[in-house]
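Students often ask why we bother encoding 3D structure as a string. The short answer is that it lets us treat folding as translation between two languages. Here is a chain of 286 residues written in the first language.
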Amino acid sequence: MPGRGSVRPEKTERVARLKAQVLGQPMIALVGVRGIPASALQSMRRELRERGHPIHVATNSAIRNALTQAAKDAPALAPLLEHVADQTAVLTAEGNPFSLFQELHRTRSPTPARGGEIAPNDIVVPAQTTSFKPGPIVGELQQAGFPAAIEKGKVVLKKDITIVKAGAPIPAAVAAMLTRLEIFPLEVGLELRAVVEGGTFYPPEVLGVDLDARRNDLVQAHRRALGLAVELAYPTAESTPLLLSRAHRRALLVAVAAGYPTPETITPILARALREARAVKALEKN
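And here it is in the second language, the structure alphabet:
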């Protein structure tokens, strides 16, 4: 039996195993799992494991010990220690931190408030005709701060209202009414807190990049750069075919305007001559 102050062997083994997992992959991430139901978390872990992104759930003390030991071999891991708080798990994988952020963001879904939670954003309730039948519900809504009234036999909210400001606690009465209105102000899902990949530390504030938007920006920049290269007659592997095509069209127009016959210009030259002859004939009639 271990003496007082000693560490149980299973804890030591757990920390050693987690350290090996952290050092065995090029990308290590800390993931927040607060508020996720156990069944949903198991499903998320299974899906991520199938994609090659296993999540290791452990106590915060075990995670800190494993990271502290691993940082001796990989110093870039040290900043992760500041993000071990609340309910935390470790994700180890290969890949791109920004793609991982998007992947984990897709696991998040709206969830109702129970009361007492901090509103992550302003909770705005729009003016609307509700599905409630007139009755005590009107008084309950009004007591919770909702602008409820009865109009034409229906319960309505007469104007838009910010029922809870961002950063403020959500009162239980408000939470109950929001749920009945099918307004779910919270999100539940995996939260990517910080990542180390290839020796580089990525704090959470730099990870929320819209990859599709950035990709579209690059496509637009490419199109504009190509258009500029063509306009300046700057030859590159991509602009040269366009430059040759433009030069060919312009040369063809010049040859037709000058009446210079070639196999390509003879048809438009004759067509122009025919149009001009018809115009002259029409003038003679007048």
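Translate back mentally: Residues 211-231 form the longest helix (21 residues). Keep this in mind for the problem set.
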